[in-house]
Amino acid sequence: MANKNTTSSKLRAALNTLIFPIISIIIAMFIAVFFVMWAEGENFFTATVTLFQAIWEGSFGTSFSIIETLVFVTPLLFTGLANAVAFKTGLFNIGVEGQFIMGIFAAAAVGLIPGIPAFIHVPLVLISGMLIGALWAAIPGFLKAKVGTNEVINTIMMNFIAMFFVNYMIMGPLNAPGKATTPLIQDSAKLWRFLGETNRVNVGLFIGLLLVALVYILLWKTTIGYELRAVGLNPHAAEYGGISIKKNIILAMAISGAIAGLGGAVHVAGIQYQAIQLFGFTGFGFDGIAVALLGKSHPVGVLLSAILFGALNSSSLNLQLANIPKDIVYLIQAIIIIFVAADYIYKWIGEKRKKEAMING
Amino acid sequence: MQKVVEMKGITKVFPGVKANDDVNFELLKGEIHVLLGENGAGKTTLMNILYGLYQPDAGEIYVNGQKVNIKSPGDAIKLGIGMVHQHFMLVHNFTVAENIVLGSEPKKGIKIDMQKAIKDTKELADRYGFKIDPNAVIEDITVGQQQKVEILKALYRGADILILDEPTAVLTPQEIEELGVILKNLVKEGKSIILITHKLKEVMAMSDRVTIVRRGKVIDTVYTKDTNIDELAEMMVGRKVNLVVQKDEAKPGKVVLKVENISALDHRKLPALKGVNLEVRAGEIVGIAGVDGNGQTELIEVITGLRKPTEGRVYINDKDVTGKTPRDIIEAGVGHIPEDRHKRGLVLKYSLYENAVLGNHYKLPFAKGIMMNYNKIKEYARKLIDEFDVRTPNEEVFASALSGGNQQKFIAAREINKDPELIIAAQPTRGIDVGAIEYIHKRLVEERDKGRAILLVSLELDEILALSDRIAVIYDGQIVDILDAKSATEHELGILMAGGTLKKQA
């Protein structure tokens, strides 16, 4: 009996968490259809068909588009997970973008070192990305823990420092003559493109999938995760239970940054093979925020929402071919975020009302 | 007699809770009517409806025979209803007179007529026998006086019907007596009073009639003179209760906790503890009596490592633990039932089994290296639930799903099962039902008899008197006296709690 109750209540809980993201995706698609109707002057039915056909063909319709979708999914896995770890500890690491950029830089630099066998060089590139990402995130973490400065502001500032520092390195010490990039990394530093050199998808995808499992284990099966989540949910109780809030804030930022930095390194070692001058942020870090929010900061949720966002992004080219502005993709993403945010606010108000009832009972 | 308030069929539903279920309530002119019930029974909700803070989902309200629709406290005030909340709503750096006229200031042109405000305050205070200085600043006066300001504020706005929510919670025994006199004076002047409380002794001393509320429903309305404490307790709880704690003589052993000359600041960086000395021995319960906000919270935080002292030492079993981390202190053998179970005691959005190991989650058998062993943890949680009779469907639910009493039993179970040498129980029975209170009291005495040292902090004097072997009275950040519980009286404690001294016999 008891067991049956727990499984059914677990199912209901899972359904409850899924219902809002799913509804918001459906509504977002629906609204997008109206914009297509408006842009194309078509009726509802044909607009729906046009839009979904374009999205489907651009993301999963052909083997090439599936491969490209996976290329888009990979970095979002890393940045989504990085944001999820921070969210679970009650932190908002907007600096995932900057940590990702620092990971790009580290991989592009370490990848240039000649004469190292691949089985050492590849791990070295990835680890250097993780370390620099961890360091970059640990700085605002440390400042928050020690002097209480807001991590949101500091990580935003660190993003700009990262971008301009990396641009300086690309155009200065590490510049490939005559180009706005660094030289190509050594072959020994590249991640294996398992579907052949012309297909950009590479083992970075599997590193990301492995990380989904690892983050799940970290958060729910280890003492580290127990402490991180406790600090995120109720720092007062965590402190009472002998859990150091300061240590865990720094640790959460470092883990988050390491994942983001690894994502940047994978992007260089698997896709770009070099660091390219940035004229703005890559956007992967910011998309990661949305991915984590839609995925409820759960690794499996992050995986699913990374696939959704990756698919939308990779289909944007196809939309243009179908005469639909590619901004429709961002419109869909934005509407999803608004709904997810509304869900958080709704829950927050609900909590507050319940608390009132409890106090005034 | 004339009915001044009549509430018929009031129903109010909060998400997941039926706070009031078809409640009928009436108040006669010139009576003191107690609304009696346990925490969470729905007393305050009912009164918040009468005061316009909540709208009922069903039901009708009549004031002086007229059907009314009270949409806001403003409407209630216009009808002559005043409410004094449990937590006072005064501006701390304003004077008494300024607070009383706030919102309905006498004006001279566009300026506030302060002279008239002071004069009005004085007249009002004299008329009802309040001893209060209109020019005193709120933050300089005692809590008891602040309460008088709240009552005067309601009277100034022309209240004929006064609602007092748990008015005695923050008062010393002497102040409670004084409040009783004030209320009698008010009734003589033709006011009608509703008292919300869960304290039976005060019901008997102060009221004319009692309405008993249990789980959102009215059980009965009786004349105070026709009833007694035991009968009221039974109606309030729904079964016979044993209000006396059974315990034998304590057999104190070695000193487990020694606090030496501790000083500390509160969260506003003001001195909260000013040289506290205290010893607790194995096998005894030391109670700390005091009015809320005299340094109790800070003292516990210093002992448990949650707050750093500015001066002094804390020893546990002769080991200096001053300024150590909470984890070190837990490992030194301290179990802590915190005063605020929602803030400190539980991670509400953690399952019960995750909460079961809070504080020793990193130790064998719950964790090996960094990997947690959730099978062992769940087994342990089930053991706690069985042993302390925690009412829950299973160990997987969020801690927030439990009632206050069951949450508290669960925390007590966790802390006692850490096998500590010192148990700190801070307000262990605040806001929980009588059944759970009985159980926790019984367990604390049992743990004492097993040879654990117990430090009890409570704002309920009855609880201190019932459980303690020795009673330390805290006032303004200092332990002003330590009394033997066998000979201590409520009267003596009251004097000490208010900062007075006892003449000791030579």
Automatic annotation (TrEMBL), chain A:
One of the record's GO cellular component terms: plasma membrane
GO MF term (any one): transmembrane transporter activity
Membrane topology listed for this record: Multi-pass membrane protein
Keywords, comma-separated and alphabetical: Cell membrane, Membrane, Transmembrane, Transmembrane helix
Keyword flag Thylakoid: no
Primary location: membrane
Places the protein is found: Cell membrane
Positions of transmembrane segments: 18-39, 59-78, 90-113, 119-139, 151-170, 201-219, 249-269, 275-295, 302-322, 328-346
UniProt cross-references to InterPro entries, sorted A to Z: ABC_transp_permease
Domain of life from the UniProt record: Bacteria
PANTHER family according to UniProt: ABC TRANSPORTER, PERMEASE PROTEIN (PTHR47089), GUANOSINE ABC TRANSPORTER PERMEASE PROTEIN NUPP (PTHR47089:SF1)
Protein name: Sugar ABC transporter, permease protein
Species this chain originates from: Thermobrachium celere DSM 8682
Lineage, opening ranks: Bacteria, Bacillati, Bacillota, Clostridia, Eubacteriales
From TrEMBL, chain B:
UniProt xrefs under SUPFAM superfamilies: P-loop containing nucleoside triphosphate hydrolases
The entry's keywords: ATP-binding, Cell membrane, Membrane, Nucleotide-binding, Repeat, Translocase, Transport
PROSITE patterns for the chain: ABC_TRANSPORTER_2
GO cellular component, one term: plasma membrane
Topology in membrane: Peripheral membrane protein
InterPro entries for the chain: AAA+_ATPase (IPR003593), ABC_carbohydrate_import_ATPase (IPR050107), ABC_transporter-like_ATP-bd (IPR003439), P-loop_NTPase (IPR027417)
SMART domains with a match to the protein in the record: AAA
Main location: membrane
A molecular function (GO) term: ATP hydrolysis activity
Source superkingdom: Bacteria
Keyword Repeat: yes
Places the protein is found: Cell membrane
Residues annotated as transmembrane: none
Keyword Protein transport: no
ABC transporter domain location: 5-240, 257-501
PANTHER family per record: CARBOHYDRATE TRANSPORT ATP-BINDING PROTEIN MG119-RELATED, GUANOSINE IMPORT ATP-BINDING PROTEIN NUPO
The family this protein is said to belong to: Belongs to the ABC transporter superfamily.
Protein name: Putative deoxyribose-specific ABC transporter, ATP-binding protein
The organism of origin for this protein: Thermobrachium celere DSM 8682
Lineage: Bacteria, Bacillati, Bacillota, Clostridia, Eubacteriales
